[in-house]
Amino acid sequence: xxxxxxxxxxxxxxxxxVLADSFALYLKTKNFHWHVSGPHFRDxxxxxxxxxxxxxxxxxxxxxRVRKNGQRTLTSIGDISKRQNIADNDAEKLSAEDxxxxxxxxxxxxxxxxxAAKELAGEAGDNATDGIIDDWTDQAxxxxxxxxxxxxxx
Length: 154
Description:
79% of the residues lie in helices and 0% in strands. The N and C termini lie far apart (53 Å). By secondary structure, the chain is mainly α. It contains five helices and no strands.
């Protein structure tokens, strides 16, 4: 394997981690969308749904970047669970404030993983992945910002 092949494999592994975290974050966001309650129910319910949709829309592009680097991507829920860094939340009762704070932290964790993948994209000479990661990072940072601002008076 050449240095370039190793760099593309490292990038693909990193992107598969980002993909696993994206699916985990998507499902957690939908979970909170389904279970949020309280005086700001409608606002949070709609925001969580919008954010979940945005996250889901990135997953195909992430997987395609893995494939364009000649690697295999995630194959199952089990594969996701082995690679995800974002923890699931199966709590039966969670306050809206706790939901906002947890999703904010998860989005910030995703930003860190995206930054690591961007560095690897540069090392692999993958300009397309390097560029698109900026968009995904901006989206995650915006979601974190909305969650922070929404939590101010939760």
